Structure formats: structure tokens, C-alpha cells
């Protein structure tokens, strides 16, 4: 129970219930759907990553550092929620 007692006057009856929304990264999962098949050809390397608790910019910076390339050479499919499990 919360340390705060929220007992304000109400215009209507008591609430019908309570809910806790999105308290853990696993409560919100994002799976990226590319919309095309990878054919193994070309000059790009496609990685499948799963992250939780890190933002996309941080992960891109770390990938560039580990690969020994510039951050601008790392691209990604949109920005993902830091407070989620994203793939």
C-alpha cells in the first residue's frame, strides 16, 4: 500500500478497482517487424538484439565501440522505449 492516503472527495461512487501499470520492463515488450526477408547479400550486417533498461542511443554507441567503427555507421529501426524489453 502507498504511504500516501489519497482520500479526496469524489463526485461519483468509489472506484470499481485498482491497477498497477507497467512496473517492470517485461510488462512492455516490443518486437520489431522488418517487413522484408534478409538474403545474406550486401555490405551490411544485421544483428538481432534484445535490450532492457538501456536506450537506443547508448546501445548504438556501445555497438560502434565494440565493432571499432563510427557511431554514425550504426543504424537501427526506430527508437525504442528504454523502460521495456525491446528486440
Question: Into which percentage range does the β-strand content fall?
Answer: 5-15%
Strands side by side in the biggest sheet: 1-3-2
Low-confidence stretches: none
Task: Please give the share of residues in helix.
Answer: 10-25%
Extended strand count: 3
**Major sheet size, sense and barrel closure:** 3 strands, mixed
Rg value: 21 Å
- Helix and strand pattern: EEHE
Estimate the global geometry from the Cα principal axes: elongated
- What is the rounded distance between the termini? 34 Å
Description of the structure:
The structure is a single chain. 14% of the residues lie in helices and 7% in strands. It has 87 residues and is low in regular secondary structure. The protein has one domain (25-86). A three-stranded mixed β-sheet has the order 1-3-2, with no helix packed on it. The model has no long low-confidence stretch (mean pLDDT 85).
Q: What labels would you give this structure?
A:
14% helix; three-stranded mixed sheet; 87 residues; 1 helix; 7% strand; 3 strands; little secondary structure
Describe the secondary structure blueprint for this structure:
Elements: E1 29-30, E2 51-52, H1 56-67, E3 85-86
Parallel strand pairs: 1-3
Antiparallel strand pairs: 2-3
